[in-house]
Amino acid sequence: MKSRKLLMIPGPIEFEPSVLRAMGSATTSHVAPNFIETFGHSLDMMKSVWQCPAGQPFILAGSGTLGMDTAAANLIERGDRALVISTGYFGDRFADILTRYGAEVKILKAETGGVVHPDRIEEELRRGHYKLLTFTHVDTSTAVLVDPVPMGLLGKKYGVLTVLDGVCSVAGEEIRQEEWGIDIVFTASQKAIGVPPGLALLVASPEAIAAWKNRTTPVGSYYSDWSNWLPIMNAYSNRKPSYFGTPAVNLVAALEVSLQLILKEGLEARFARHHKTGKAFRAGIRALGLGQVPLNDAIASNTLSAPLYPAGITGGQLLPLINEAGVILAGGLLPEIKDQYFRIGHMGSVNQGDIVTTMSAIESGLRGCGYEFVGGAGIGAAL
Ligand code: PMP
To answer: Which of 72, 81, 83, 305 pairs as cysteine with 281 (C-beta 3.0–4.6 A)?
Structure first.
C-alpha cells in the first residue's frame, strides 16, 4: 500500500520536486558567488511576486511570526498607536506582538467568519492618531479573506502605515502591494510561496523604510532590527558578499526555484487557479451539506477552506478516517469554535487531481462516520 499521504493543511504544503531538489543540493558558503546570485535573484523576484517594484525585500531565517515581529519592532516606538483588524487567531497574535513593543493597541474584531466593514475602520482612524494599521489578508483560523484595497486607501487618507499579514495569501491571493499602497506585506515560506518552513519574507514600502529611519529610539529587537539587515539585503541586491547572521542557505536555494516557478506560471494565471480551486472546494463542501466558517463566498479565501462538522460528528472521529483514506487535513484553530470545524489547505501547486483526492477522502470519512449524503456529490460539485 502506498504509504505517502497527500498533505492538504494550510501550511506546510506539498512542495514541488524541483524545489526539494534545490534544497537538497550541497550547502555552499553564504558568501560564495553562486549563493550571492541566488539570494540577489530571489530578492529581485520577490519585488515581482509582491508587485512592488519600489519596495525593499527582506529574506530572513525564521517563521511567519518573525514577519509580524519585524514589522512591529521596526515601526513601533513606545506609545505609538496601532489599530489591529482581527478576523481570527492571527489578528489577535499581532495585537500581542505590537503591545510587546510598547504600542497602544486597539483591536477591531470581526464577528466569527465575518470581516470588519471599512466604514467602522475609517470611523476609528478619524478618531485616533494611529501610526499603524494591521490586517490579516487571509486568516488561517477562519478562512476569511479581507479586501486590502480599502485598507490601502484608508492608510493613505489618514497618513497611517498599513501592514498586510500575507502568510496565508502571498502567491495565492491577488496582491498588488504598490498599486494598493500597502506599506508592509510579509509571508512565510511554507505556504503558497512553496518552500519548506524556515523563511520569513517581507517587502517594505519606501514610506515604511522612511518611518523606520525617522525613529527616535532604537528598535527593541536585535534580530529583527532593519539596521542589521538592510545593509545585508542591499549587498545581496548589488551582488556583493556580506554577513550579519548566517542565512538559511539551502532554503534560499529552494526559494529561488519556487519564485521562478511562480513567475513562470504567471501571477494572473496563478491567482485565477487559486480562485478556481477555492470555488471548487466550497462547491464540494456545500454539496455535501456542510456549512463553512466564512459567512459568505465574497469573503471566503481561495487558499484554504473551513468546513463545519455535521451535527453529531467530531473531528476526533472524522479526521483520522480522512487520514486513513490518504489525505492529511487540519483541525480547527480559533479557540471559540475549535471543535466545530476543520481546515483544508489548497494553495501552491494544488491541481485537479488533489482536489478530487481530497473530496473523495472527505466523502469516505463522512461515510465512515455514518453521515448520510449522496455518494460522489462533493466530488461532482467540485469538478
Ligand atoms: N499569520 C498567518 C495568517 C498565519 O497563517 C500564520 C501561520 N499559520 C502566521 C501568521 C504565523 O506563521 P508561522 O507559524 O510560520 O510563525
So the answer is: 305
| Residue 15 DSSP label | -
- Which three three-digit cell numbers place residue 248? 538559511
**Beta carbon of 249 within 6 Å of any ligand 1 atom:** no
User: Measuring CA to CA, which residue among 338, 319, 318 is closest to residue 330?
Assistant: 319
Cα–ligand 1 centroid distance for 139 (angstroms)? 9
**Cβ distance 368 to 165 under 8 Å?**
no
Are 340 and 308 in contact by the 8 Å Cβ rule? The answer is yes
Strand partners, 135: 85, 164
Q: Kindly give the distance from the C-alpha atom of residue 156 to the centroid of ligand 1, in angstroms, as a whole number.
A: 26
Mean pLDDT of the chain: 97
SS (H, E, C) 52-80: CCCCEEEEEECCHHHHHHHHHHHHCCCCC
Indicate the residue type of 350. Answer: V
- In 177-248, which ranges are continuous DSSP H helix? 177-180, 206-213, 226-237
Residue of 66, 87, 90 to test ligand 1 pocket, by largest number of atoms within 8 Å of CB: 90
- Counting as low any pLDDT under 50, the low residues of the chain are none
| Spacing, Cα 90 to ligand 1 middle (Å) | 7
Q: If we measure between CA atoms, which residue out of 68, 169, 81, 62 comes closest to residue 125?
A: 81
pTM listed for this prediction: 0.98
